[in-house]
Amino acid sequence: MRRIAVLAVVSVAAAVAVSAPGAAGAGRSWFTSWAQSQDGRADAAVTDRSLRMITHLSQGGDAVRVRFQNTFGAGPLTIGHATAGPSAGGAAVTFSRDLTFGGRRAVTIPAGGEVWSDRAPLVTRPDSDLAVSMAVEGTAVPGRHGAALRDNYLTPPGSGDHTGEVAGAAFPATVGSTYVVSAVDVHNTALQGTVVPFGSSVVDGIGSPPGANRRWTDDLARRLVAASAPLAVANAGVSGTTSASACPGLPPQVAGLDAASRLDRDVLALHGVTAVVYYYGTNDLAYGCDAAAILDSYRAVFARLRAAGIPVYVAPITPRPGYGDQANLARHEVALFVQRWNTCGGTCSGVVDFDEVLKDPLKPNSIRPAYDTGDGIHANAAGQQALADFVSLPMLARSGPEFHTMR
């Protein structure tokens, strides 16, 4: 397994620099088990209140550490106290463990910055919810991931620090976004890697039932656990985004969130990454990009992943009934590139043909009715499971010969 080293410098209480857990010497025992990429900022400020964000771990371990990001925050974000503990449903937790930052209880993260917590001893299990709580001091407009597809919880403004409370009664307000928390690592010497699905709303899980952890990436994680494959899954999907950076109809709210712009922050900064599943392109065509622009972006991103030693497995662009003739011609050209030699003409490591899974054999520009949410673009729960079931586990774990008999 190859590991990426990163260094994050933040203000820790009195502007002390803290290195991220990917720094040299941390060993090969830390793997990102859950992620949600930040894609903007909260609609309103938070003032002297506690936030409890629910994360869903793909694999467990004997300790955790958490990434707190202020990438899109409107100003500095001060966390006076943070905890993590197993979710007991809703806003309740079974118990909590304090999180520290360079040995300190409090941390101030500048706008655009991030910090990883120190190691916290906490036994977790695969396919389980971990609640991460933080007390925000003062007023801040935090960064967020817009499509949490579950409720997260807040105390009332001005209520102060409730991060250590086990019951959920102090957190009456809910929000459908994930604030500040963007990744959770687990310490597990038995794991061998993290798979990162990277793309737009089809990766983000739009179409899956809210609160059910039924994204295809969640279903894939459960398959890996059932097969005793030592791999975690960390979702790097952001709805509405593109592979190419400059499609003519790109909405302003997703400008700067293209694949190349997000790659370092949302993929390479995670830990133990051994494979990327690249599922991009539907929005590129919808926003007017041609095949040349899409393929240029593919080649650039794939080259950076190869340089980092990370295999990338690519999905052809899946159906969308609103495509016109030019978009369909571009979709065909991109598919030919991806499928050439089953290695994108030698630029990727393999193909995950989700187009074959989703397309209606009678109407190839539409999703099979049994898998369609009704919008013709996104897969329902059955479609999400079908995507997960299609992924080859030996492909993802190909560096481990003991998994070559998986199906």
How would you state the average pLDDT, rounded? Answer: 91
Rg, Å, rounded:
20 Å
Kindly state the percentage of residues in helix: 10-25%
CATH secondary-structure class of the largest domain = Alpha Beta
Q: Could you explain the architecture of this structure?
A:
- It is a single chain.
- This protein is an alpha+beta fold and 407 residues long.
- The chain folds into two domains: 30-185, Jelly Rolls, CATH 2.60.120; 192-403, SGNH hydrolase (Rossmann fold).
- Helices cover 20% and strands 27% of the residues.
- The protein has nine helices and 23 strands.
- The chain has helices at 201-204, 216-226, 259-268, 282-286, 291-307, 325-339, 354-358, 381-390, 393-396; strands spanning 30-35, 40-41, 46-57, 63-69, 77-86, 97-99, 107-109, 114-116, 120-121, 128-140, 143-145, 152-154, 173-175, 178-179, 181-187, 193-199, 231-233, 236-237, 273-279, 312-314, 350-351, 359-360, 363-367.
- The strands form five sheets. Strands 3, 5, 6, 7, 10, 12 and 13 form a seven-stranded antiparallel sheet that branches.
- Helix 3 (259-268) runs parallel beside helix 5 (291-307) and helix 5 runs parallel beside helix 6 (325-339).
- The protein is globular.
- The two termini are 22 Å apart.
